[in-house]
Amino acid sequence: MAKLSLGSTFSIFHSRHIRPPLAGCHVTKMTVADHHPSLEVVGGARDRFLPSLHTNLRLPYNPFPLIAWNRHVETIFASFLRSIPQVRLRRECLRVKDGGSVALDWVSGDHRRLPPDSPVLILLPGLTGGSQDSYVRHMLTKANGKGWRVVVFNSRGCGESSVTTPQFYSASFLGDTYEVVKHVGARYPEANLYAVGWSLGANILVRYLGQESHACPLSGAVSLCNPFNLVIADEDFHKGFNNVYDRALARALCKIFKKHALLFEDMGGEFNIPLAANAKSVRDFDEGLTRVSFGFKSVDDYYSNSSSCDSIEHVQRPLLCIQAENDPIAPSRAIPREDIEENLNCMLIVTPKGGHLGWVAGAEAPLGAPWTDPVVMDFLEYLERGASKTGKFSADSEAVQRSSGELHRIEV
């Protein structure tokens, strides 16, 4: 279960209906409904974005038999048995301002194969996730196959990246995201930038969009299985079978921590290093380490102030949110539906099934890509077709020189 990382996906439908003929008219006009009625599709940008998601949304969502009948079965199946596309990656280790490090994994050879104005897609995996995970690899190969330049943003300690300071990443910390987006934009100044995040990565991405607001250098983004409200997500995490996920993620966090335990040897104050090192739950880890590292008085204070539900109203870039109604880790009741409906830049799709990072359905089920991947690409390609090529973010030369001098490349 240590492979499991916070994140998720979705499913969609479409149907046909016939308008009654107008009085005195002998022609019956056929119109195509926007989506299948069993889907929840809302948002201030619904009418703007929905026509671009034409293919999959007009077909019934058919979860794969025997696997998707239960949300836990689907979640576990996708985590352990879904295929993992083999891709040769080129790693850049980026040293950020506070001395910490993150790892950026690019598709090897794309810097020569693709033109400099090819759109760039930044992928943010879920908690403890990285470029090794199946849902990340499938999205990477799908986008790359359509001519997109793709980079996986492995947070501190994730994806076998190094931890170089006594601090991990968190749901509250946006500093690394700012620096990664800035670095990628400086490297490809002619390209439009986009991002896709899963679960905790989605929460961080949406918080970043809200914080940057009108100044955001991204041309669009997709949030998948976002927990949105971490207080509610934490409540559900301790119920029934969800305790299995909680323990699995805690073990994954402890594994990363123990690799770098010497960095935390002399931490004093409110830190409880033994609790973090031997955490039985994610909450234990956050109590012993995370909330203290980022200056919160309690775990609940950390969760409350790190939830992306409060950021939706400030998002000023096109954002597609995809959730599963039966997601055991990102509860449907935590979705900020009203804020999404009021924001003219946002659209939400909620599927009846999908589990967490599951969506075992569609043409490639059960072992292939999640059903969501084609929908995500439809949305991103729609944005890219209409994106302006002007007004892009550009870094000053000093920042570019500094980041270039702090990068190291290896093949993975």
Question: Any descriptors?
Answer:
412 residues, alpha/beta, Rossmann fold, 2 domains, ten-stranded mixed sheet, two-stranded antiparallel sheet, 15 helices, disordered C terminus
Gist?
This protein has 412 residues and is an alpha/beta fold. The chain is built from 15 helices and twelve strands.
What does this structure look like?
It is a single chain. This protein has 412 residues and is of the alpha/beta class. It has two domains: 40-228 and 309-386, 3-Layer(aba) Sandwich (Rossmann fold); 230-306, no CATH class. Helices cover 34% and strands 16% of the residues. The chain contains 15 helices and twelve strands. It has helices at 46-49, 54-57, 71-80, 110-113, 134-145, 175-187, 200-212, 230-237, 242-259, 273-277, 282-293, 299-305, 337-342, 372-386, 397-405, and strands at residues 16-18, 30-32, 40-42, 89-95, 101-107, 120-124, 149-154, 193-198, 218-224, 319-324, 346-351, 407-411. The strands form two sheets. It has a ten-stranded mixed β-sheet, sandwiched between helices. Strands 1-2 form a two-stranded antiparallel ribbon. β8, α7 (200-212) and β9 (218-224) form a beta-alpha-beta unit. α9 packs across α11. The longest helix is centred in the middle third of the chain and has 18 residues, at 242-259. Residues 6-32 and 393-412 have low confidence and may be disordered. It comes from Gossypium mustelinum (Cotton). The active site is at 199 (charge relay system), 327 (charge relay system), 356 (charge relay system). Residues 119-357 form the AB hydrolase-1 domain.
